[in-house]
Write a structure and sequence with these properties.
Layout: H1 26-37, E1 41-47, E2 50-55, H2 56-71
Length: about 90
Amino acid sequence: MNRNMHATNREASTELLIDLPAESNVTDLLLERVAADADAILYERKVDGVWTPVSAGEFSDQVRGLVIRTNCFGHCPRRLRRGDVQHPL
């Protein structure tokens, strides 16, 4: 970043569309979405200039893969095997 430029933080918020229990978390929300419809599109991401849909199931698999890789970095009880991570990030 140019030293003459100042970084600014922006805050955005929206009203809740559903009521959530205080003890709920983002993992609960994702697992509920996957259980309801794993093929439902959660978002799109740009890959090689083309917007590509990502389903709830695909995103869940990516998150699980990331958790496996993160937890196994340096202190994994066993080596990762083929199939442990299905969708590389």
